[in-house]
Amino acid sequence: MAATTYDRTYAAARPSLRASLGQRVAQYRAYRQTLSELGQLTDRELADLGLHRSQITEIATEAAYGA
Fold it and tell me: CA-to-CA distance for 46 and 56, rounded, in angstroms?
């Protein structure tokens, strides 16, 4: 009886685990893309945007994870 209950619980939770994993992967990709794009800018271009190179990680985190 315990195995049946476990199987049903696991099967019910499975789609939400996949959705959660998919969301985390998408967030990580957005983080990496933001890092890459901002990292390619020169210091002058970053300054024109009012940014400093040391802020890139923080900005990428905020953009991807909404922190």
Answer: 9
- In the DSSP assignment, the letter for residue 53 is G
3-class secondary-structure state, position 12: helix
The separation between CA 31 and the C-alpha centre of its own chain, rounded to angstroms, equals: 5
Residue 46 CB neighbour total at 10 angstroms? 17
Contact 38, 60 (CB under 8 A): yes
**What's the pLDDT tens digit per position in 7-43?**
666 666 677 888 899 999 999 999 999 999 999 999 9
Decide: 27 and 64 in contact? Cβ < 8 Å: yes
> Whole-model pTM above 0.85?
no
